[in-house]
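Sat 14:20. Reprocessing the chain from the morning session after the first attempt stalled halfway. Input below, unchanged.
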Amino acid sequence: MVRSPLFGRRIHIAGSVDLDPTVADPAEVDAARDFVRLLTAELVALGATFVLPVDRENVRPADGRAICFDWLIWETLDANLLRRPSAAPEPLAIAVQHHKTEDQIPPRYEAMWDRLRDSNAVKIENAAQWNMNAKRMELQARWGDILIAIGGGEGVHHLANLYHDAGKPVVPLMFKLCAPHVGARRLFEFGLASSQTARLFRTDGALDPQGWINRLNFGRSDNAKRIATLVALLESLRRPTAFGVRLLDPSNPEYPAVQDFFDSVVKPVVEDEYGFKLTVVDGRQPYEYNRVDQEIFEKLHRSRIVVADITGQRPNCFLELGYALGRGLPTLLLGKAGITHPFDLVSLGGHHWNTTGSADDRRHEFRTHWEAVRSRPPLVSSEALIP
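Finished this time. Tokens:
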């Protein structure tokens, strides 16, 4: 069976229901909860993973309906564990909590949470002493790959900005769970303008983001059709970007070796094995911005990982490498073996690649280096002044 593009992708479903039943009608709330439950079950069956808060469950005083969807999602994950593909990666969910969480678990979910917490299905990330939604959202956005927004308010706006800045897709849903012009409804309205849709998410295939956002305007569709549409969109999302920094001047004597290394080693490993889209701004791709320097740094800024080869000692490569390191992006630093560099490649955890040997052997060396450094912390930590 062909794997879904969502296999192993971390999905973050975030939002909430307005306290006022005249804003979020109970019937609309119930439809949204049914949608979230069915969507979560479908994503589990496709091999997706999740990012999910662990906290108290607040309810609306007017009708007792839960304000957030978090425990509904946890309950659905637990009920659908047997639907996961056998090779689906662990953990199923990254649980983001804070120091008060264990005292706030709703009693009816305690047994389920204890069972999940003690299994391989859950990895817990703690926001330490931060009992502050903004800090927990930073952790959620760091782990998540795709944000699905439903209802909500300023918290959803904050999450959307965090995901956008990291180059991750934001998919808003048009459920009437919040007032107009706030939360996911505001994001959806923003995306209806064709000039803005691609800032929310980008897709591959025949249908562009503008076409997809209009399909998400569910109207009178039932939940089965809504989920089919959303899953089709999620599966068409452009893969996360691995930005390539490299020698691009064909007149440079090192160019043939660099080109061969990227064609036979970097691209197959990065794209075919790790699921990224290797992006190199070389003048042959369609431009999205007015100037070349903006094209480079917009895409570099929002890439998920950087593959920087400094063979040829091109000043622009050093500039882009410095930007990647300063932004704290996971950066693979490479250079051809035997070439003199203006600084010690090894001290920065770099890799000297060879021009000899089989393609399989060279890929193995590159893959080994990737696994060794991909989770390495940035050069300068963003340590808080007051923890």
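The mean pLDDT is 91.
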